[in-house]
Design goal:
The complex is a heterotrimer of chains A (92), B (564) and C (507). Chain B contains 20 helices and three strands. With 564 residues, chain B is mainly alpha-helical. In chain B, strand 1 and strand 2 form a beta hairpin. Chain C is 77% helix and 2% strand. Classes of the chains: A mainly alpha (92), B mainly alpha (564), C mainly alpha (507). Chains in contact: A-B, B-C.
Chain lengths: 92, 564, 507
Amino acid sequence: MMRRLVQKLAFLEKNPRRVFRALAALGGALLALDALLWIAGVYKNIPVWHGLYGFVMCVALVLGAKAMRHIVRRREDYYAPRATDSEEERQP
Amino acid sequence: MIPLIAPGWLLLGGACLIPFIPKGAARTSFMLALPLFGMGLLWLIPDGSLAASFGGYAITPFRMDGLARIFCLIFLIATFLSALYAWHLRDSFQHVSAFIYAGAALSALTAGDLLTLFVFWELVSLGSVGLIWARRGEGAWHTGLRYLIWQMASGLLLLGGALFFFRETGSLAFDAMTLQSPSAWLIFLAFGIKAGFPLLHNWIQDAYPAGTITGTVFLSCFTTKLAIYALARGFPATEALIYIGVIMTIFPIFYAVIENDLRRVLSYSLNNQLGFMVVGIGIGTPLAINGAVAHAFCHIIYKSLLFMSVGAVMYRVGTAKATELGGLYRSMPLTMIFCVIAAASISAFPLFSGFISKSPILSESLGGGYWVVWFLLLFASAGVFHHSGIKIPYFTFFAHDSGRRVREAPMHMLLAMGIAAFLCVAIGVYPQALYAMLPFPMGDYTAYDAAHVIGQLELLIFSALAFGFLMLSGLYPPEVRGVNLDWDWVYRRVLRRAFERIGGSVLVLGDKVWGYVLGVWGVVYSVLARFYGPGGLMGPSRAAGSMALWTAILLSLALLFAYS
Amino acid sequence: MSETLALHAPALVILLPLLTAPLCFLFSRAANGVWATALLVSLLSFLCAAFLLEKTFDGRVLSYHFGGFPPPLGIEYRIDMMSALMLLIVAGASLLGLLFARRSVARELPAARQSAFYVCYLLCASGLLGVAATNDAFNMFVFLEISSLAAYALIALGGDRDRRALSAAYNYLIMGTIGATFFVIGVFFLYAATGTLNMTDLADRLHALPVGSRSLYAAEAFIIVGLALKIALFPLHVWLPNAYAFAPSAATVFLSAAAAKVAIYALVRFLFSVFGLDFAIGGETLNAVILPTAMIGMIIGSFSAIFARHAKRIFAYSSIAQLGYMMLGIGLESREGLEASFVYLFNHALAKSAIFMALGCIAYQQASMKLSDLHGIARDMPWTMAAFTIAALSLIGAPLTGGFIGKWLLMDAALAQGFWLIALVIAAVSLMAVLYVWRVIEAAYLKAPTGRRRGAPRAEAPRREAPFSMLLPLWIAALLSVYFGVDTRLPVGAAEIIADSLEAAGQ
């Protein structure tokens, strides 16, 4: 069973765009369901809000962090020898 | 009648016995039996408290109620899982440290007064630092010292707060307080350090990645959640906590995105999860407190599962740096599955444990009218998914193939991770069992209504889409080696440098000033010595002479006071 | 039987060692025989003290009239809670010290002087016991001198190992004599004014006198300064570090646990029971003198300890700081302060004697006590250093040790009067204790052993663990200092009764 799982994953790994497209389809379906339920009056949430917000904020988060890295990143041995960052990782 | 002792005391007693049991299966079985036995005790012990007297103060060394009970339960489960995970370990120092740590944390949960709380609060620090020092080496030594200083500072604040509190109220009882007196502020800060409040948080990200593989699993369970318990007990519905908590959920996710050391990513993410709990406590409605407690419960399981899976990788590969990993799903598929389950739980996917505990906090922030807080928490939720839910499994098990081919994690680690993963799913599928144990009745609350489920799924899927989009478009920042400066840069670098630079000149200046003082004193002394001094009569020793002079001065002072 | 014992125990506790000491000197030259006798006598004395403590625990006061002459004419031994607690501390320290002494003294002193050591030791113990028991001011002076003279001799006996012991003993002799003289001058002033030496009687008659008599001011000033010298209260502490550092190890153990504390007892006895706080030099003036000097002593002592390089001297300086704590509680002049002081005193006696025993164990194995020569010693002497660590934790005031409850009570007492600055100083000085204890722990556990000392031609014998007979009392003291940190009934219960009675007397 594990072997088949690994094979599947290896296939997906070679075709990342397929994964992305599947995700996008799922997202679209969710948006549609969300809108439908809202029209049917099942709940009073703002429709599609969560999806847009999640997408936009995630992109903003990553780009923000990327910009931040220019300021805060230092060499790995910056605090050495008083930190473990650059120490050999082998341990029991 | 079975003699009932507190589960924490049982673990502490057991910790003292550990070195006397031969290493190997006998000892590890003993260590596994302790928390199981503790759970039995927990089941037998009724609610109530034990009054005692210590040094003339009325104290409550043991108190059991709904809030303490559920925390005790999860601490015992975590002890069992962590001990099972550490089955292979043959290091007495780590064994004893870990059980003192867990036992002290449990005892602190059942402390009914501030004095007992302080005692175990300090013991928690002492036991836990052993798990960092056990890594051995200079870096771990210094990291442990920094960690210990923070923890001791927290202890001293608590001690000071307890003293002032006693003077203000005449009692040491540990119950809900309000932030209106200096004592309450001191105690609040003491809890705040251990809970990782912003600017008091650096010890978490500094120390946890420096612990041993098994030690960090222990570390991730107790210290911070003990602080969450203490806040829930001492400062429920304190509005300041809402804003503190929100900041805690936001800023660590930025660091988590760019951090290379996966255990540090998890530490930042831990800080962010604490923020959700702190917000829940700050809102303070029964449902929000329940949410915070349930979140702590689930969090301990999935966070330790994450640390376990990264630890298992570390155990096989020898590193937890994202730059060195990747493609490990081929070698360690089971570990990968457990890691994904933990990632789904922390991201609050429906049917996983995080979902059923985070929802009450989010709904209560909305219900309480904290719109901005709700927006930010939602952002933080997306961020959690991003760095813990996707980044950890992706960079460990997928991404570019590091070419490393190792064996699957050892059996006992798989077993510990399997149990934890089972709990994550079980709680997510059947939350009523957990809800029933919470300190307040949950009524007919359910996280599984259409609005919640669809909203959350949408948020997560679109966050994943954002990740995919950034990855495919090459905008995603690549993993690179390095350390990222956080607030601790101020004291680890700036203050240290300043101290070293200024220290030298201060010493020179101090020598000069001291020289003047000595010179003036020499003049005064010689004048006085002419009148009262030993002058050879008192013998050759200067010490005796100057002492005699001092005696004369003191006597004349006393007489002067007397006659004036 | 029990009644007869109760009747005579107050005298027995002192007379046993006092009379045995010269007998030993006359009849026995074999060190082991003298040691065994001294141990037996100390044990009996300790049992008497424990018995007395148990008898006085309900607040009862036992009075023993010497030779059947009733006070105020005859000499009275009066055992209340405070006396009984001091008797227990002194007798207990003496017992532990003797258990420890046999191997230590055999190693550190030449055979010819070993029996003299035990004789002086017994004399010193009986003198200190006498101070605690007697209710006669002049008798107290006599016992103070017995103990002091014996202590000078004990310290000087360290001269065979390190010549500096002789000058230390000499300094102590000069200062101790000045202190004793001041004390006796004060007592004579009192006698001249009242015509009595019995302290209970003195208190009554003093308060019948018109207020403002100059000679009584002088009396109080002389007695306070005289006793402050014996306590080694800052700035009269200079004799102490060298005396403790160069005395034979067993003598340091006993003196550090008992000597200065008995002087504190005498001071409290005079200040609160005899004079009362509203007398002559009023309570406010004392407050203004004792509190600052105690705090400066705490800070200076700790600083000196942090910068000392000789392990024994580190803890000698620490004693000055710790005595400052005890004086601080007395200087607060409140019920809580007195209670804290006595709890502190009790726990410090245990912790400090354990620490000096551990250092004595090290001294048994190697000549040098420099920190740089202690590197890695925990590997060679794990049991010694483990007990040292426990006792050091109590000295710092770590939770679940005796030191914690003492410091907690003291901080609480300071806060009760609104002196939060004093509470802060107490906390800060505790952190300084962490520093100087840390230096020893770091040397013992973390530094690699230097191996053969630089330039040393001969290979030294490898260090080994100290003998069991030395480890036993060390561990008893270390474990007791933890025990009394958890079960605080004895020290706190006793201190409460003491504080109550002193407060009642001081009114």
